[in-house]
Amino acid sequence: MTAERLDRFMARASAAYYATHDPFADFTTAPEISQIFGELLGAWAAVTWRQLGAPAPVVLAEAGPGRGTLMADALRAVRAVAPDFAAALRVHLVETSPRLRAVQAARLPDAAWHGRIEDLPDGPLILLANEFLDALPIRQFVRRGAGWAERHVADGQFVEVAAEPPEAWDGAEGEVREVCEIALALAAHLGARFAAAPGAALFLDYGPEASAPGDSLQALRGGRPADPLADPGAADLTAHVDFAALARAARRAGAAAHGPLPQGAFLTRLGLYPRTTRLARGQAPARALELMEGARRLAEPDRMGRLFKALALCHPAAPIPPGFEAA
Fold first, then answer.
1. In angstroms, rounded to a whole number, what is the distance separating the alpha carbons of residues 126 and 43?
2. How far apart are CA 50 and CA 279, in angstroms?
């Protein structure tokens, strides 16, 4: 078999996986853990919209919307607390899977769908993206002697091919460096868009606060860790997000970048625990415990609170977005 560059292997494997599998059988995302996650992001979008001058109409978009749970919860909160924003917004979803589009349409029948973030309509934009970036394909480079080799895949194994990396990295022998060119291009696109027109984007995903070497490629199959190179299309492939690199790309394009900030700190500043306490009041004990457990799972440092980060991009003259004020 001809060796295939890792990012191309990942793109092919991920397309096959999402075309034939229910990803929620392998992992659970924050919106499925607690309705409050989507509600808080809806409130975040409403406040951010006002900070941008309350443009109308405005595109409220989500990238990688899964079952549509996050957007449905966000819209419920928006209609309750910001009817003016609810009247101004137009829902757009970025999704490539026909299967998932059908699931999303059942919850969000008025939405419009696109294959790429770059295809979203011009004009004011507020973009939400939870666990979207981690699924984008990466390239990996390994330090060998005085140069670098790039990882390709052949017959379920890595094959190294001498190659020049996209950046002038230093590194010890055997050190692995990762780059997600699609994510960097996306950050540059949004940076240029937000430099020219009102807009903001909120990304929540997992990865380190600072760019760092290491092999973060991983796979889940049937809810368990699996070999990411075996049986392409049978497992969900992901890698850690380089938030610092994304922020740099957006700033170079003219936008402001805030964060990354640990998800636990971000959600706590948005009112995660008071909102959970209010919602738990009057519930059956089992439901109240479920709500509190969901909040802890999202925010506690030894669970999702520290590994997951929040990054916001926006117009350079816009105020600091909610949750990032003390970052």
1. 12
2. 26
Domain residue ranges in the chain = 22-136+179-314
Got the DSSP string for 76-110? HHHHHH-HHHHHHEEEEEE---HHHHHHHHHH-TT
The fold for domain 22-136+179-314 equals Rossmann fold (3.40.50)
CB within 8 A of 13, min separation 6: which ones?
232, 233, 235, 237
Contacts of 104 (CB under 8 A, 6+ apart): 65, 66, 67, 68, 71, 93, 95, 111, 113
Which candidate, 49, 189, 74, places its Cα nearest to that of 124? 49
pLDDT in tens, 74-107: 999 999 999 999 999 999 999 998 989 999 999 9
197 closest CA partner among 321, 315, 56, 118: 315
285-299 and 272-280 helices, crossing angle to 10°: 170
pLDDT tens by residue, 194-243 = 999 999 999 999 999 999 999 999 999 988 999 999 999 999 999 999 99
pTM above the 0.85 mark? yes
In the block, tokens 């430099």 appear at 195
User: CA nearest 150: which of 138, 137, 165?
Assistant: 165
For the record, the structure tokens of 19 come out as 């075309």
- H or E stretch including 190? helix 181-196
